[in-house]
C-alpha cells in the first residue's frame, strides 16, 4: 500500500511543532533565530520535515541537550539522526596558507573523512549545511542594509551626526569580523570580537530608540 507524502501544510504544521519544542529549551536566542530561519530554508528546498527539524535541533541546541531522553522522544528519531549527522561534518579548519601539497593534520583528515561519508550516506545534508550558512548571511545582509539606511537618515537629523558615524563604524566592523571569521576558520578571538560587536550594535540601536522616541503626552 502506497503512503502519500505529507502535504506542504502538514509539513509546515509538523515543523512548527518542532520549533515550539526547541523554543522551550533553547538557551541562546540568537542561535535559535538563525536555526529557525535555516530550518525554514531547508523545508522550502527539500520538503523534508525531519531534515529541517534536524537543522533546527543541530543549530539551536547544545550537544548534551540532544542526549536528553525526553527531548529526544519529543523531537523524534529521524530528527535526531539528521542533527547528529550534521554534527559529524564539523569544521575543516584549513588556513589561508594551506595547499594541496601539504599533508592534512589528523584532526583535518578525520573531519574530511566524516564529511565525505556524510555526503555519500545522505546527500541532503549538503543542502542543510548550505542553508545553515545561507541563513546567517541573509540575516547579516538585512541587518547591515537596515543600519546603513538608518545611519544615512540620521546624518540629516540635527544632533545625530555622531551617532550615524558610530552606527556605520560598528556595522562595517561587524562585516569585516564576519569575513575574517570565515577566512581564518573561526579563531576564538575573532569570534569573541564578532559577538561583542553585535552586542555593541544592539546597545547603540536600543539607546537611539530611547532617545528618538517621542515622549507620551
Q: What structural class results from the helix and strand content?
A: mainly alpha
Instruction: Provide the β-strand percentage band.
Output: under 5%
Nearest-integer average pLDDT: 78
State the share of residues found in helices, binned by percent. over 70%
What does this structure look like?
This protein is mainly α. It has two domains: 8-126, no CATH class; 131-211, no CATH class. It has nine helices and no strands. It has helices at residues 8-25, 29-46, 49-60, 69-75, 77-89, 106-121, 124-155, 161-184, 188-212. Helix 2 crosses helix 7 (124-155), helix 3 (49-60) crosses helix 5 and helix 3 crosses helix 7 (124-155). It is globular. Mean pLDDT is 78; it is low at 91-100.
What descriptors fit this protein?
globular, single chain, mainly alpha, 2 domains, 9 helices, 217 residues
Task: Provide a quick synopsis of the model.
Helices cover 76% and strands 0% of the residues. By secondary structure, the chain is mainly alpha-helical.
List the helices and strands and how they pair.
Elements: H1 8-25, H2 29-46, H3 49-60, H4 69-75, H5 77-89, H6 106-121, H7 124-155, H8 161-184, H9 188-212
Helix pairs in contact: 1-2, 1-3, 2-3, 2-7, 3-5, 3-7, 5-6, 7-8, 8-9
